[in-house]
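@channel sequence for tomorrow's demo:
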Amino acid sequence: MKLEEVWNQHLTTGTVRPLTHDDDELIYQFQASHPAYFAHFQDHPVTRQEAIQDVTDVPLNATVDQKAYLGIFKDQQLIVLVDLIIDYPLPSLVWVGMWLPAKGVSSVELSSYYQSLVTTLKTAGAVQLQLSNFMGDRQMKQFWEDQGLVAVQTTTVTKGSRAANVTIYQDKFR
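C-alpha cells (generated this afternoon):
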C-alpha cells in the first residue's frame, strides 16, 4: 500500500496525494508564497526551477524510490507541502525535508496532520523521524517542540555561498 493511501486513512480532514511535475505551477506558487522560509538559506526568492526541482531531488546516498513528495489538500487547496525521505539516513528513520504549511492553517489543524503522519509512519514500520529547523524560525521551532520533538544537534547547512544554522529535531515513536 502506498504511503499516501495509509495517511488518508488516518486523516479526519483533508486528503493527501503525491505531488508530481503535473503540479509544477501549484508547487512553485505555493513555495513562492513563503519568502521568509527561503530567506533562511538563499539570497533570492525561490525560482520556479528550484521549486519544481524539489519534486525529484533526493539527498546524497538516497534513491528516488525513497522519496514521498506529498500535498495535504483541504477544499481542493494545497495547505501543507510535505517532502519525506523514507529509510534515510538509516533504515526505519524518516527524514522530513520540508513541512511547509499554508498561511492560515491553525496550529491545532497542523498538529492533527503531523500526528496522523506519525501514525502512518509507524504503520509503515518507521521508528523515528528527523528534520531540521532554521534557528531563526521561532514559530516552527515552537510547533515541533509542542509535538514532542527533541533537539538533538545544531549544525550549519551550506547552500552555494550561503550558510544557515539549523537545529536537528527528532521524534522517536513510542
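heads up for whoever presents: The mean pLDDT is 93.
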